[in-house]
Each structure stands twice: as structure tokens, then as C-alpha cells.
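Renewal narrative, Specific Aim 1. Our central claim is that a sequence can be written position by position from structural information alone. The example that follows is taken directly from our test logs and has not been curated for this report. It begins with the C-alpha cells describing the chain, in the order in which they were read.
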């Protein structure tokens, strides 16, 4: 019976054989980072059925040991909390065998997922040679990369590892996610303790392949049972195996594929995926990963300069669950890097793949510092409207912070109506100029509505709304761009609209 169960568990564990040999699961290795205190790191692996495994942690100032029995070919322990630092050795031992991990650090683990802009590696970014030349100066930022594999069932362990845990060198990091690496490097410069980065992403993929069947059912997603968009095939093989890992948070850069696939469901499917990942990582780690762990993401950049398609603008809005900003009531403890002002018309990798990942990563770090680490006085949100006042002649948009403004004839648009009917992306929108501004308010003309009323206003609602770092509205420091928005007079819940 035990042998039969072992075969079943081996299948779930990515076909690792039940040979009775003692070893750690695939994503443990020398040079790895384990989650620091106050959380407790989880270790697991394989061993001879019924054997008593002693798992020991040895370091200069700390030593602890745990005893666990191998059940169905699997052993698992949860370490006592360990403060940031290292190095440590971790040894699993049975009577006649042992396995040891060396140079193990404790710090914060960040998952990095999504599609091709997260996959975009360090050799492809602006100033790649310079960026790679300083990699070795950050020995406590450790990368790990999951290999690309699919599965029709949820696996317990990874099928394959692309980059094992490594002390960073240029040759290792050049194939690693640029957004992920730069985020980790920038966070290390702030935190001054080890950062572990786990890359698990695949280009051209919609959110549905990264979501469990539970999450998809919440959004009434129609099951796709075959082909590259088969529901959950990457959740099964590249996320589910990692659930036992205690993590600090996750980063996400995805959405381009959903501009053409289930676009109208993304305002449900993306928040549902976040909720489900949080629940699954919390349960998988035995309650060590926070049930509301911080989740940062990149709002879509740009693709086609002359496009009139609403795909990218709609996804940007849906990425916030149609609030326009995060965190919000639907997406708590999230943070967002706005990237619509970072186009790259000459990218050799296609305009959908801008090479400036430094600004993207930096904006993510601001959100992480404020939301994940609760650092005070860290601005991370661009300006967003809190009050709109409209007359027959003007619309005054008052923001939640001081703004820096450049004049524009077409970045704002209004929708006109005599009956206050809600306006959507397919309604008739008319470009209207900025006619004035002060510290917190921008005034645009309402004259295009003539005898009608302004029923809605929107900002930067196009695929490619501005040139590089040249959108019309930024924070007072000119660092954070205002995110796009579409606000209806009749249904705005996020602020006050006054008509005169």
C-alpha cells in the first residue's frame, strides 16, 4: 500500500522516482535564500519510507534540529524563525545517508511571474553591459529560475530547473528576468539583507494558464481543454510546485495576451488569481506565507503607436479591477508600476517589449517599500482624481496630490450626453484640450459637448498615449505618471462629481 501511495505522490511530484534515496525537493539547493523571520521557512524532500529524518541548521551563531518521519516517500519540516543573514548549512540525515545544502541565506523571497516582459532578460535592456558589470557587487541577491514546462495536473515538484540558486555573476544573471533582478537589487540597496528571486514566467501567455480551476470558476471562465491556452497548464507545472515555499511577496508583468483573449473578464480573472495564489501559498506553507502577501504588478506599457484599438487601455483599467489605482477595496495590499509613459519605438524585440526595465523596477520598489514594508513617506502612487466639477464650458479635475502638468490638446477626452447615460470605451469620445491648471487641479474644455452635458471624462485612453516620460500629468516630483482613467458622472464611486 505504501509503495502504491509513493507512486501516486511521485506522479504529483513531477515523476521523481520512489527510489528511497534521501534528497531535497527540486527547488532547494546550495546558495539558496530561505524566508527570514518572523515567518518560518519550510523544507521538504524525499526519503526511504518510514525513515526518521533529522534536519539540522548550522551557522556561526545558530543551530537547530528537527525530526520528521518519511510518509508516502515525502518528508517536510518547518524551521524555527531565523533572522536575516547567513551563511548556513542545512543537512537532512537518515541512518545511512545525508544531503546538505551549503551557503544558505535567510532573507525575503519574491516570486516573479507573468509573460514576455517579465521573461525579458538582462542582455536585452538599455545599458545591459553596464548593468551586468555590477552584478557581482550584489552577492546577497540570489536568482532561481523555473524551466518552461506544462502539465495537465497539479504537480507537487518542478519538472525541471532552468537556473538553480546561484551567487550572481554576469553569466548567470544575463539570462534572468531584468525586472525581477533589478527589483531585487534595488530592494537590497534599501533593506541591506538577502533577497531571493524566483522567476517563473512564459512569454505570450494569458492569465488563465497561470490560474487554478478554483480561480477561473469564480469568473465563469469557459474551460479550454487543449492548446497553448489550456486553462491552468502553467499553474499546474510552474506555480503549484512552489506552494510549500514561504515567500514574502510576488511581482507580476502580464496582460498583453489578454488584450486579445478574454479581455472583458480580466477585471475578474486577474484579482481572482491574486486571491487564489494568496490562499494557496498560505496553505501550502502551513500558514507561514501571509494570507494577504503583497502583490505588485506592472500596468501595461505600449504596443502600436497609431492604434485605435481599446485592448491595451481596457486591460490597464481591468488590471486595477476597474478602480484605476491600487491598492483598492477589491485589490488590497497590492501595488502597481505605471508604464504607459515608457514606450520604445525602436526596440529590436518589438515595440511590445520596451527596453527600459530600470524605471519599471524602480517604480515597483517604491510600491513594495510603501505597501510590503510599510515604510512611511514613500510616494508610490501617481496622481488620481478625487473630485470633478463640470459646467457647460469647463471640466475641473482635482487630483489627490500636487501635479506637474504639460499642456496637451488630446490626452483628455469627454463623452457628451443629455441623459447621463454611462459611457464606455465604445461610446463617442471627443478630444478636448487642457486650458489651465494649478497645484492640484487641471481644467479642460467642455465646449466640444456644445448643448449637451459632460457625462464622462477619460485620460490617456489609448495604446500609446505619449512619448518617453512625456505624458502630460505627473506627480509634483515628475517621477510618477498619472495612471489612465475613465470616470462616469453617473457611476463614479471613487470620488465626487459636481455639476453646475
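The sequence written for that structure reads:
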Amino acid at each position: 500500500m505504501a509503495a502504491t501511495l509513493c507512486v501516486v505522490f511521485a506522479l504529483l511530484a513531477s515523476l521523481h522516482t520512489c527510489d528511497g534515496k534521501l534528497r531535497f525537493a527540486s527547488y532547494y539547493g546550495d546558495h539558496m535564500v530561505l524566508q527570514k523571520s518572523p515567518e518560518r521557512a519550510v523544507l521538504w524532500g524525499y526519503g526511504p519510507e518510514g525513515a526518521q529524518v533529522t534536519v539540522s541548521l548550522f551557522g556561526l551563531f545558530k543551530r537547530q534540529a528537527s525530526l520528521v518521519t518519511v510518509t508516502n516517500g515525502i518528508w517536510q519540516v518547518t524551521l524555527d524563525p531565523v533572522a536575516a543573514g547567513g551563511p548556513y548549512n542545512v543537512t537532512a540525515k537518515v541512518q545511512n545517508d545525508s544531503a546538505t545544502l551549503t551557503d544558505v541565506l535567510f532573507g525575503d523571497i519574491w516570486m516573479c511571474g507573468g509573460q514576455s516582459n517579465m521573461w525579458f532578460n538582462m542582455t536585452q535592456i538599455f545599458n545591459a553591459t553596464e548593468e551586468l558589470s555590477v552584478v557581482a557587487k550584489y552577492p546577497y541577491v540570489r536568482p532561481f529560475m523555473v524551466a518552461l514546462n506544462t502539465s495537465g495536473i497539479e504537480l507537487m515538484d518542478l519538472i525541471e530547473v532552468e537556473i538553480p540558486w546561484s551567487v550572481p555573476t554576469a553569466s548567470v544573471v544575463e539570462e534572468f528576468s531584468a525586472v525581477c533582478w533589478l527589483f531585487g537589487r534595488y530592494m537590497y540597496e534599501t533593506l541591506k539583507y538577502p533577497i531571493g528571486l524566483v522567476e517563473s514566467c512564459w512569454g505570450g501567455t494569458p492569465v488563465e494558464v497561470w490560474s487554478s480551476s478554483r480561480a477561473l470558476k469564480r469568473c465563469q471562465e469557459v474551460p479550454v481543454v487543449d492548446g497553448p491556452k489550456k486553462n491552468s497548464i502553467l499553474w499546474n507545472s510552474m506555480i503549484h510546485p512552489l506552494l510549500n515555499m514561504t515567500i514574502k511577496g510576488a511581482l507580476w508583468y502580464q496582460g498583453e495576451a489578454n488584450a486579445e483573449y478574454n479581455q472583458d473578464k480580466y477585471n475578474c480573472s486577474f484579482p481572482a488569481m491574486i486571491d487564489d495564489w494568496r490562499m494557496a501559498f498560505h496553505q501550502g506553507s502551513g500558514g507561514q506565507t501571509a494570507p494577504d502577501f503583497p502583490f505588485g504588478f506592472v500596468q501595461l506599457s505600449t504596443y502600436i503607436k497609431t492604434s485605435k484599438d481599446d485592448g491595451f487601455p481596457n486591460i490597464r483599467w481591468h488590471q486595477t479591477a476597474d478602480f484605476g489605482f491600487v491598492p483598492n477595496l477589491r485589490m488590497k495590499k497590492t501595488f502597481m508600476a505605471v508604464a504607459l509613459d515608457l514606450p520604445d519605438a525602436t526596440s529590436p524585440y518589438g515595440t511590445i517589449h520596451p527596453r527600459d526595465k530600470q524605471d519599471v523596477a524602480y517604480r515597483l520598489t517604491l510600491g513594495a517599500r510603501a505597501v510590503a514594508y510599510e515604510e512611511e513617506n514613500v510616494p508610490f502612487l501617481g496622481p488620481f482624481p478625487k473630485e470633478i466639477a463640470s459646467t457647460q464650458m469647463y471640466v475641473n479635475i482635482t487630483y489627490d496630490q500636487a501635479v506637474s502638468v504639460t499642456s496637451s490638446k488630446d490626452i483628455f477626452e469627454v463623452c457628451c450626453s443629455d441623459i447621463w447615460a454611462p459611457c464606455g470605451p465604445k461610446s463617442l469620445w471627443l478630444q478636448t484640450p487642457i486650458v489651465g491648471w494649478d497645484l492640484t487641479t487641471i481644467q479642460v474644455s467642455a465646449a466640444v459637448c456644445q448643448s449637451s452635458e459632460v457625462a464622462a471624462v477619460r485620460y490617456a485612453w489609448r495604446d500609446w498615449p505619449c512619448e518617453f516620460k512625456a505624458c502630460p500629468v505627473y506627480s509634483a516630483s515628475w517621477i510618477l505618471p498619472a495612471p489612465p482613467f475613465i470616470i462616469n458622472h453617473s457611476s463614479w464611486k471613487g470620488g465626487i462629481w459636481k455639476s453646475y
